[in-house]
């Protein structure tokens, strides 16, 4: 069976990279005495898959990992056992048992299902930009542009890309979720956004803020903003499109059907 675990990453562990997080969970699983399944072969390892690993320095209330187990007593006991062995900076805030995969149906992981994520972006203390009212006004002017063209860089290349249709939503007031473990700042300047996120379409919040600073005519300062991931979503709309096909469709000016559901609720039993 496969369980999907939702966890928070915050405080000093925000500076720990993905490989260290993976090793940490392997140790936590053993200490919690979970009946974890191992791969076969000469070098067996715990079978787990993380969804869209968080960048170093970011915090989150909604990280996800799928772990294959041989057995489980109950969801509640598994969560309690893991949290008992978690260091400060990690907290398990959700666990669900996924449905068994049907025969001849491709296995779907949290990573493959990932379609969007919510972020809170805060201006850190000690940095100056504009006052909050000007920030809101200018950010909406930025967001309401017909196009938002950025230079998107990868390890292999860089290219211009219009990210306007991949910024799904923008707002300025808390909606009652996903900020329990976020860092807070006296500046009070913050914006919330929902962005396309996945293995192919992956719009990071720092890319949006860099474009916004350019729109303002201000120099983008890499460490001026704190990014906090609030929730991750899968798309259950029946559009049967790969992310590559979605990019092509958006570039043709087509609208993409979206029905976003938190990853913890996708493919669960019962």
In short:
This protein has 270 residues and is of the alpha+beta class. The protein contains 6 helices and 12 strands.
Q: Mind explaining what this structure looks like?
A:
The chain is α+β, with helices and mostly antiparallel strands and 270 residues long. 23% of the residues lie in helices and 30% in strands. The protein has helices at residues 18-31, 75-84, 110-113, 132-143, 205-216, 243-251, and strands spanning 2-9, 35-36, 48-51, 59-71, 90-97, 114-123, 149-153, 158-162, 167-171, 190-196, 225-235, 260-262. 30% of the residues are buried.
* Radius of gyration, CA atoms, in whole angstroms: 20 Å
In N-to-C order, the SSE pattern is: EHEEEHEHEHEEEEHEHE
Instruction: Compute the number of helices.
Output: 6
Mean pLDDT: 90
| Extended strand count | 12
Helix content: 10-25%
The biggest beta sheet reads: 10 strands, mixed
Structural class label: alpha+beta
Strand content: 25-35%
Tell me, briefly, the overall form: globular
| Distance separating the two termini | 14 Å
Which runs of at least 5 residues are low in confidence (pLDDT < 50)? none
